[in-house]
UniProtKB/TrEMBL annotation:
Domain of life per record: Eukaryota
Organism, scientific name: Saguinus oedipus
Family the UniProt entry places it in: Belongs to the class I fructose-bisphosphate aldolase family.
Protein's pathway: Carbohydrate degradation; glycolysis; D-glyceraldehyde 3-phosphate and glycerone phosphate from D-glucose: step 4/4
The protein's name: fructose-bisphosphate aldolase
Amino acid sequence: MPYQYPALTPEQKKELSDIAHCIVAPGKGILAADESTGSIAKRLQSIGTENTEENRHFYRQLLLTADDRVNPCIGGVILFHETLYQKADDGRPFPQVIKSKGGVVGIKVDKGVVPLAGTNGETQGLDGLPERCAQYKKDGADFAKWRCVLKIGEHTPSALAIMENANVLARYTSICQQNGIVPIVEPEILPDGDHDLKRCSERPPHLPGRHFAEPNMVTPGHACTQKFSHEEIAMATVTALRRTVPPAVPGITFLSGGQSEEEASINLNAINKCPLLKPWALTFSYSRALQASALKVWGGKKENKKAAQEEYINGALANSLSCQGKYTPSGQPGAAASESLFISNHAY
Ligand code: 13P
């Protein structure tokens, strides 16, 4: 057994543990509002709205200032660099707005997916990461996210892609922790393809411990013709996690990965009801499945702000129940509740 150099003091470990448990306190999950400028462009385009800083600011402010009914549901909000430094109309920086509602501030620190010769992609952004983490900590962020992408195909994910991404994720987690930032690792397996549940559950056992994981649920590929029940999806997901994620990880915060809002809530609920031992908090870190209805109702119009906030609040309340296994569909779905949110070869 190699000797592990003690990189963190007991005080540093306690700080990280406290932050993590705050984010996944019972009934809480994460709003992923960290779409890069390129990704938010596509969301705004879908509602015929121009991708200007003003519109991005208006929309993010709408989400972040939704009334206090969201407070018991949202343990953390992940922001993109630009949003971390924006202010609400009352002059408060957005991180302060999030904290005033009991949320922890997160920041996307990867710089997007780049081609890795001989594989299907790797994530860039380790350059200068210690300095960026130190600065983000000073500027109010207490957790971070790093997204890497793996694809299921005849020859993917390759051993090289798995190894490289695992290495990058491990380096990233260590750098974050040394700067007082709880790292979320996001090994996203894209839903593109016709693979079934079994193939999707054969995920690589490469998650290092002591931080958060933001995987996708084990679901059949978008083009798979076989149907699986929510209970089967839940069983496959929890089984795969039990084989790969150490019990020391405080929480697993699923991304929605192209599921509709309703599917994402029902599946999360089924996962929490799954009758297997689950040593971690199992909750949400949704972008599309927490925002689709709000975005649609807002439609880029100032006068729709309140109605859009209601949609977001309803989604947050629903998923707060789901992450406790207490959700039953209300029969009054949101504006985009059952729409598929699948995006081919999704970038973020
Ligand atoms: P989706 O919920 O839209 O999959 O996104 C969550 C996320 O954090 C992707 O990086």
